[in-house]
Specification:
The protein is built from ten helices and 21 strands. By secondary structure, the chain is of the alpha+beta class.
Amino acid sequence: MRNRFHRIVRFLGSMRFAIVLLAVLAAACAAASTLTQGQSYAWYAQRYGERTAAFIAALDLDDAFHSPWFIVLSAFLCLDLLLCNLVRVKALIRRTRMFAEPGHLLSLTPECSAWVRQPEKAFPHLNMGIPAQSETDGKSMLSAVRGRAGLWGAWVCHLGILLLILFFSLGQTLEKQYTVYGVLGQSMAVGSTGYIATIDDFRIDKSESGFVEQYTTRFTLRDANGATTAQSAQVSVNHPARLRGMKFFQNSTGWAAKASVTKNGEPLQSQWLCAGEYLEVSDKPGLTVLLSAVYPDYIFVPGAGPKSLSDSPVNPAYLYSVYYNGQLVGMNVLMQSEELTVDEYAVSFSEPSPYTLLQVKQNSFSLFALLGGLITAVGLLLALYVQPVRVWAVSGQDGLWRLFGENRKGGKLFAEAFAKAAEKAQISTPEDGKPNAED
């Protein structure tokens, strides 16, 4: 039973299992990236057909990165990386400790070796510093090492990837998203964060030919309780802003209008409505007015319906719907100077204005994911650029020393450097590998 458990642990922490998981995750991510996310079943059915839509819904492909199978695959990949590191850490610690032990060095037979007279002269030429002196098995020994941190490159890289995947997955799974929209000067709560955003400015930049080039919003974020100092930021398309652990994106824009309600000719209530929002009459439960659309430069095209000739509010009109207790009771287009009357109530729209819509993402794990990326980069640097090198010399007969060197990452370059260093230390290498009698 214990052996079976160890085999399972070794398999879950193996590179083979990690490669399989990475291949499956890569294929899943590639497939999900080609499929529009977050749409309704009807949207997929209309686009791909009922059978494909049912398949998409069954596998949660419409929200792949939050689906149970994606979370399970990510969890297994994290487990594999964790076990991989845990299984190897003990051996890596032992290898690091033994890297410079004289007794261990004597048991090695590296490819780079030479007979020399003055071994201490070879160490500086190999950038090894001052060698340590020791006595092992009755032999004098000089040894020096550098770059032992390079032994940990792959391990640190695995740790970074583990943290990156873990915190990125947690961030995507537990990420909170909010929508903030309004006209200039309007203040709105940012979801359940306890913060309020006020729109200080909204600008639509256009080219000389009239095409929109950029949407830019400047806003101020403050604590609803006044516990923190208010902060301001500017956000535009492809240029998000970060405030209070949240990321703000310029998402879209549209038109809004001020809705005013009178009762028997007396003002009752007034509020801004963005297209698609409802107004509930305060003292008439069940009476609701929906502002469906705003046409800043209204024209009615036979066969096509209402349209806007331009974005300039020169002839504004408002498409509305009236509901009472959830039932549609009326729908029409209301011009700027007209009123909608329902019994003793009158509703009018005015001040057509563009509104800005900001998407807000709150991810508590983004900094930890960034830390995982930095650790991965450090691991790559250790693995690729920090070369573990050890050079040692063992005393022989007739005043000669056998000089050894090892650099598994250096290859031919290290062998060439070792040969030059050995020359500086008065090399003597006969064909049989033994020193000559006259030497």
